[in-house]
Amino acid sequence: DTGVSQDPRHKITKRGQNVTFRCDPISEHNRLYWYRQTLGQGPEFLTYFQNEAQLEKSRLLSDRFSAERPKGSFSTLEIQRTEQGDSAMYLCASSPLQGGETQYFGPGTRLLVL
Amino acid sequence: KQEVTQIPAALSVPEGENLVLNCSFTDSAIYNLQWFRQDPGKGLTSLLLIQSSQREQTSGRLNASLDKSSGRSTLYIAASQPGDSATYLCAAEILTGGGNKLTFGTGTQLKVEL
């Protein structure tokens, strides 16, 4: 295990379609985060899991977005009825439970909604 | 609400020059301050993490300082190299109910020319 992995790396979809992204964190990292990054901006926090519990959701996460982390391992982020404004890089990060540790980021999934 | 600002937005320097990147944040109640590097189309790589009780951290040619009272952090890069060309992001970490999250600046895009 060399780091956080995300799949797919790129996704092109048509407006109105549903998409699902997967994130595999570093083994034994209890915390998992999702961020969204648009061109020329820094990443923005979307949601956070500690083990399987989703502890916080940003107001950026509309009702069309849902995230899960079954069994506290990998996580999925689903976007229903995609809109052109959803086009962005979706980044996943993980960190250990103890404080003072950095978050380790995956390579991201770039989504383009046509 | 925490807001993070980075100046300058872009910087171009000749190889070998020493340079300083600036980051400011509005809420001094941070858990830590982190600097990341992002190459085009890629995820983030952690460079330095400064705990709220610390004043600076060093790694190789990189030195980051933190002044919580003034809401500022700087990243100093010594003897810059073309391989340092990337976008540099600072992020303030705050503790939320049950977890923590990063608030990012918009980044400084650095180009080091031969």
Plain-language structure description:
- With 114 residues, chain A is mainly β.
- Chain A has no helices and 11 strands.
- In chain A, the strands form 2 sheets. In chain A, strands 2, 4, 5, 6, 9, 10 and 11 form a 7-stranded mixed β-sheet that branches.
- Chain A is globular, with a radius of gyration of 13 Å.
- The N and C termini of chain A lie far apart (35 Å).
- Chain B is an all-beta fold and 114 residues long.
- In chain B, the strands form 2 sheets. In chain B, strands 2, 4, 5, 9, 10 and 11 form a 6-stranded mixed β-sheet that branches. Chain B has a 5-stranded antiparallel β-sheet with strand order 1-3-8-7-6, with no helix packed on it.
- Chain B is globular, with a radius of gyration of 14 Å.
- At the A-B interface, strand 4, strand 5 and strand 10 of A face strand 4, strand 5, strand 9 and strand 10 of B.
Give the tally of β-strands of chain B. Answer: 11
Shape of chain A: globular
The value of Rg of chain A in angstroms is 13 Å
Series of secondary-structure elements of chain A, N-terminal to C-terminal? EEEEEEEEEEE
Fraction of residues in helix of chain B? under 10%
- Sheet with most strands of chain A: 7 strands, mixed
Helix percentage range of chain A: under 10%
Helix/strand/pairing category of chain A: mainly beta
Spans of chain B of at least 5 consecutive residues whose pLDDT stays below 50 are none
What is the string of SSEs of chain B from the N terminus onward?
EEEEEEEEEEE
DSSP summary: helix tally of chain A:
0
Strand content of chain A: over 45%
- Indicate the mean pLDDT of chain B: 93
Distance between the termini of chain B: 41 Å
